[in-house]
Structures are given as structure tokens and as C-alpha cells.
Amino acid sequence: MLKQKNVGFLLLFSCFLLSACGEKEKQTTEINAPQIEAPQIEAPQIEAPQIEAPQIEAPQIEAPQIEAPQIEAPQIEAPRIEAPRIDVPDLSITSDNKQITIQIPDTVLFDFDKSELKPSAQEVLDKIGEVFKKYEEAKVQINGHTDNVGEEKYNTALSERRANEVKRYLEKNNGKGSLHISTKGYGESQPITPNNTEEDRKKNRRVEIVIEPKM
């Protein structure tokens, strides 16, 4: 009986040991692992480099300066009017591309200080009248001139009378036709040479007939 109790006791003790060992093992097994916090590693803030785009200036292309060629207009001279030939001594005849100028000394047409034509002047004016026939519808200007001897007013009036006398004769004896004749007395205001000598004054006493043909 005692033996059976010992055996029972041993079994109960063994169960206790086993239970205690199991508890210890369980406690050993259930050791809480330490909570290790992983270090917070902050990712480095890497700033992207600011790359400035290069400023590329467009090249300035200068437009070429092209000079237009200077074209000179051709100088076209108007045809020169041919001076007529009048067979009268001391008569001066000139011409350009616009007009014909006939200068007649006063001694050919008038006596000193007179405005009536000499008889010999008629032949001269008749030859000039023949020239008029070549220039129909021409403008004719008859100008009287004197030297500076005497009063200016008197000389102007004398030159006007002489110019009108030449006009009157030409229209009466050679036909006015289609000519346009006008007169002007300039007196001593338009000398062709200084009135220093008698020879110079003689040149200034004159009648000019200017013929401007219709172009």
C-alpha cells in the first residue's frame, strides 16, 4: 500500500516537474524579443542643379548696303537754230537753240538823235523781212538801245521811238503775216560794253531784232 503511494507520489511529482519544466521552457521560449527601432535614415535632400540655359544671341546680319548705280541722264542738246545769212555790213547775227538775234548799229538805220529811218535803211530791213518768211508764227521782239549821253528819260523815249519805227516798216512792207511783233525801249540800261569811249558808245547805240521760232 505504501509502495503504491510512493509510486503515485513519484508520478505526481514527475508531472509537476514536467509541468514546471514546460512552464520554464515556455517562459524561455516566450522571451519578448527587444523592440529595436530601425533608425530613421532621412534621405538626403539632393537639390537638382539649376542649369541655366545658355543665352544664345542670334547673330546680327547686316543687310548689305547696295548702292544703286547712278545713271546719268544723257545730255541731249536741243538742235541749234542756224543763223541766217544777211549780206549787210556791220550787221551782227547770232543764234542758239532758242532764238536768233540780229544787232543793227543805229548808224545803219538812223541819223544822230533821230528816229526816222534813213532811205538806205529800207534795203537792210527788206533783207531782214525775207528772213521772217522762213519762220512763220515766230515771236519777234524789237528792242531799242542808246548810249549814256544825255538824260536817261530822253534816251529811253528815243529808243522806244526807234524800235516802233522799225516795227512799222517791217509790218507795212513785208507783211505782218503770222508774226507776233512787240517792241521795247531800254535806253541806256543794257549796254553791251562800258560807255568809256566813243567807239564803245557807238556799239551801244543799236536796234536788236530777236526772232524766237516756233519749235
Compact description:
The chain is 34% helix and 15% strand.
Structural write-up:
This protein has five helices and five strands. The protein has 215 residues and is of the alpha+beta class. The chain has a five-stranded mixed sheet with strand order 1-2-5-3-4. β3, α4 and β4 (180-187) form a beta-alpha-beta unit. α3 (121-132) packs across α4. The longest helix has 28 residues, at 2-29. The chain is rod-shaped. The protein starts with a helix and ends with a strand. The relative contact order is 0.13.
Question: Top keywords for this entry?
Answer:
215 residues; alpha+beta; five-stranded mixed beta sheet; 34% helix
What is this structure's SSE topology?
Elements: H1 2-29, E1 92-95, E2 100-105, H2 106-109, H3 121-132, E3 139-145, H4 152-174, E4 180-187, H5 198-204, E5 206-212
Largest sheet: 5 strands, mixed
Structural class: alpha+beta
Number of strands: 5
Outline the low-pLDDT stretches.
none
Shape: rod-shaped
Strand order of the largest sheet: 1-2-5-3-4
Distance between the termini: 182 Å
Give the percentage of residues in beta strands: 5-15%
Helix content: 25-40%
The secondary-structure element order is HEEHHEHEHE
Radius of gyration, whole Å:
69 Å
Would you tell me the overall average pLDDT?
A: 82
The helix tally amounts to 5
